[in-house]
Amino acid sequence: MQPTTRPAPPDPAQPWPDIAALACTFAERPDISARSVLVTIFGDSVIPTGGEIWLGDLIALCAPFGFNDRLVRTSMFRLSNEGWFEIERVGRRSRYRLTPAATGEFADADERIYRAPGPGWPDRGWDGTWTLVILDGLADRAGRDRLCSALRRRGFMELSPGTMATPHAEGARTAHDLLARHPGDGPVPVAHARFEHLDELVAAGWPAGGFGLEPLAERYCGLLDRYGWAASPPPQAPTDRDAFLARTMLVHDLRRVRLADADLPPQLWPPQWPAPYVLGQLAQAYQLLSPGAWRWLRAASDSARAPHPLRRFH
After folding, report:
1. CA distance 246 to 16
2. Pair 286, 313: CB distance under 8 Å
3. pTM of the full structure
4. pLDDT in tens, 243-255
5. Cα(118)–Cα(100) distance, rounded to whole angstroms?
6. What is the domain extent for residue 135?
7. Which residue, 41, 183, 185, 184, is CA-closest to 101?
8. What are the pLDDT digits (tens) for 196-234?
9. Residues 230 and 116 placed together within one structural domain of the fold
10. The pairing of beta strand 157-160 with beta strand 52-54
11. CA dist 196 to 128, 129, 204, Å?
12. Do both 57 and 176 map to the same domain?
């Protein structure tokens, strides 16, 4: 693998774009759907401000992206049928909250998305030990696929078909927690192992979280290209609505990259690995956007309370 190039820092003089127009362009991307944006809004904005929201408020939050009333209703109805949300009927109004099962999934994603570089990130004291989860014994293919997906969202990689691996010290605890939450149709061995020549394998392009390290580095640099302007204060403060839109878009695209990254320890990073720098810049952008975003959320939603004090990159 060729050495990764560290991205250039954002230009502090770079003007902020027209965020309303950017939101419309964002919603027109082929990889964006009302369903996926609703999941981002719920995780980034609804859970920290009380955990429940009226359907009408969700419609109002999605309107600037160009998602209409019918599309939001249909998307939430389908997500509820899939077990993500509970619906409470109050007269003619509907209020949504996470199901108990979905609460754990969102909490797992929260830890991955908002954990910014700092002491111990990702595992600076790594001793070379990996945790392996062997899924070959599960006959239920659908159940095995669900477990693989859940493990990937928590930083596991597919070492080989049916074998998931992570270098993180809490890997065994994470695996047992997920296995309890997603019981299979047979025993699932969890083991620890050390490997020779693994650094050479990684350097040769061994996939991390389903992506090779070089494509993953390009995705991180792409995040900075797309949102680096938000890391520097603008000459004129954005409107509260624009702050909400920009923060939602940033988190939406960040979520996809973070949940695809296995967060390898520094000993396995290629030269100039961009993730820590990019995440530091995006954490700064998130903090700059948040005051206005919270104000607009509270103004637009009858359910929203003051944000939870821990909702920040940490």
Report:
1. 10
2. yes
3. 0.90
4. 999 999 999 999 9
5. 31
6. 130-193
7. 183
8. 887 777 767 666 656 678 889 999 999 999 999 999 988
9. yes
10. unpaired
11. 10, 11, 14
12. no
